[in-house]
Amino acid sequence: MARRGAGTPFLRQLSLLLLLHLGGTLGCASVTVSPHIVPLGSAVTASCTIQRELCPGLEQGKVRISWMLDNKLVAGSQRQGPGGTEVSNLTLPRFNHTQARLFCCVEWNGTKQRVGVAKIRAGYPPAKPLNLSCILNLGDYGLTCQWEQGTDSHLPTSVVLKCTGSSAQAVTGCTPQGGHSHCTVPRRLLQLYRQMEIWVSATNALGTAESERLRIDPMDVAKLDPPTLQSIQSIPFQTDCIALAWDVAQGTEHMELQCELRYRAPEDPAWALVTGIIGQAGTAQRCGFLFGTQYHFQMRCRRSSASALASWSEWSPGRNYTTHEKAPTGKLDAWWGAQPAGPGGRLEVQLRWKAPRQREANGRVLGYRVTLSPRRRGRDPPTICNTTHTQCNFSVPAATRRVYLSAYNAAGESAPTEVILLERKGQPLAGLRAVPGGERSLWVHWEAPLAPVIAYVLEWQRVTAEPGHCSGCWQMERDGAATTALIQDGIEPFQRYNISLYPLYEGTVGVPVHTTAYSQQKAPSHAPKLHLKRISKSEAELCWEPLPVEMQNGFITSYTIFWASSISNVASATVNPSLSSFAIRGLKPSTLYRVHIMASTAAGSTNGTSLTLVTTVLDDTEIQFLFLSLGLVFVGLMVLLICFQKNERMKEQLWPSVPDPANSSLGKWVPAAVPQEPLQVLAAREPGPAAISTVTVLEGEPGKQPGKEDPALAAAPAALPRPYVRQDSPG
């Protein structure tokens, strides 16, 4: 019995776990949602009913019902329904999920168990399809239509293409597959050469939307194959015209076709379009082409009776053709420089010119010729320069004032351009300045002079450490009233350019004016390297070399010097860019400082490497004074020493000669007999006069001078001295 009682709860739990699975309720609970599909953001109501007798394990005890929206707990109300059921109602005021699952749960054994589920979807009504267009394929005569679906409705949507003909009964033409926005109506549903209505219908649970109706004859939107260009040739008598011939596509010979031709040269930014060409003609002429220029031609066609919605064929494969050449026309822009060539009476001329534009070159220019006189009928003048370049250096007599320049190609030579070698002594301009026109261009502005100007010549050269010359860096402004010009050739950012402007007057050339400019600036590539020029206890003078112009990347606006020690804050000073040295004052003696320099332009700054320096203890003048004082002292000592060595009297005064007692006669004399007297010592505590017991009188030998010794005595060994005691009175 005990084992049976223990097994019953386990079987009940197992049966309830098998019952409460996600997929269904097995009659234990029912969940209703009204509605299952709602507009996004609208309210949703739900109800969950639990029948106790159908849920094993829930027959006894109170049933607590709760709700979960996906994994989020939501609150609902609960009441007792008829027949012993438990009912819970839930209202979601704003359902903002495109889809979610709503679970009905009961509390059993301390956990929430899901006993019912309902799926809710939300979205929008379908969007109106837009931009419907159709093309008829002449291969199988199927009508392929495409459109734009619009915004996503977040709901399953059924899209069909519908069409109707003269019967006025709409049929489903086709249904797109795989979520695409195109499909093809088969030939059996089409009525060729008759008007049909075609539209797209999109339907979901919240509504239906239809596109604008397209009214077309399927043949009007037939996609024709492109024509084929057969030949292109120039018309000799009309030198700027060409003739084209083509064949229409196979299968379109019976149709009336409208065609278009387009062409362009390699340097043209856009195509030139020729319309209104009749396709059946097979040939056409077109004028206005440049000489000696390669063009690329293409052609396309469509039915002439087609509406504006008709589709053009694809462009035909391209065909290239180069028009025939003609002798160059127009004048060449020329500029010169001249200087005497030594004592021989010659003039060295550097002549430069601009290549003619394509419209004036009339083909490929083969070269240029410079002569001293114009070409006359029947004879050619001598040539002083014949080159394929756009510059030439030559020598002419000093009296030469005119040369003649011409260009030639395979078809002939241009009329000569007269170049007058004028002197440059006219009135200069004023107010020349240049500003950036872009990353690779410069605008040049100037003030118009009082005298009338025929033209202006602008020259520009890139400033580099190694001088160079750009022969093509110039341009001529033909408008004498102009006060601005745009330079675009050969301009690079972060590079400095010298710009010169010459006014051309009648009979003379003005003195040039100059300026410098950058099209774009940035911070210098690096800062100068500092060098220590001089240092003292309170001042340090620094110097640096100016940056190479290629490294400046702009106009240097200032240099900034920074210095600091371990016990002071960073100090700085701004230096004019024209200077290359700076003296730091107010430094402390015997102190280590770190110094660096910063170079600045209008677009940024760059710091240099650090320089370490240590101030001295004394200034140079103080060191010089110290060394001078020590030198004077040393010289004085040397002078005194020399004087002492040379002057005997001064030596006697300062260091008198003292006799040596050991060499005196008294020191060598020994008495014959000295009676021994008892040594009497006065007591330390008995002051009184000292008593002399014996006085010995020494007498010299007669005839012996003082200080002279007997040779015999001098030769005799000296007698040992006898000890004696000298007593001095306490006084």
Question: What do these coordinates show?
Answer:
InterPro entries: FN3_dom (IPR003961), FN3_sf (IPR036116), Hematopoietin_rcpt_Gp130_CS (IPR003529), Ig-like_dom_sf (IPR036179), Ig-like_fold (IPR013783), IgC2-like_lig-bd (IPR010457), Type1_Cytokine_Rcpt_Type2 (IPR052672). GO terms for molecular function: cytokine receptor activity. The chain crosses the membrane at residues 625-644. Belongs to the type I cytokine receptor family. Type 2 subfamily. This protein has 731 residues and is mainly β. The protein has six domains: 24-123, Sandwich (Immunoglobulin-like); 130-216, Immunoglobulin-like; 224-322, Immunoglobulins (Immunoglobulin-like, Sandwich), CATH 2.60.40.10; 334-411, Immunoglobulins (Immunoglobulin-like, Sandwich), CATH 2.60.40.10; 424-518, Sandwich (Immunoglobulin-like); 530-614, Sandwich (Immunoglobulin-like), CATH 2.60.40.10. It contains seven helices and 50 strands. The strands form twelve sheets. Strands 34, 37, 38, 40, 41 and 42 form a six-stranded mixed β-sheet that branches. It starts with a helix and ends in a 16-residue tail after the last helix. Mean pLDDT is 82; it is low at 1-26 and 677-731.
What is the total domain count?
Answer: 6
| Spatial shape | flat
Query: In angstroms, what separates the terminal alpha carbons?
Result: 145 Å
What fraction, in percent, of the residue positions are helical?
A: under 10%
Provide a count of the helices.
Answer: 7
Oligomer: single chain
Residue windows where pLDDT falls under 50 for at least 5 positions: 1-26, 677-731
Q: Beta-sheet strand percentage?
A: 35-45%
CATH superfamily of the largest domain: Immunoglobulins
| CATH-defined fold name of the largest domain | Immunoglobulin-like
- Structural category is mainly beta
Give the mean pLDDT.
82
Number of strands: 50
- How many strands, which pairing sense, and closed or not: the largest β-sheet? 6 strands, mixed
GO molecular function: cytokine receptor activity
Pfam family, one: Lep_receptor_Ig
Protein name: CSF3R factor
Membrane topology: Single-pass type I membrane protein
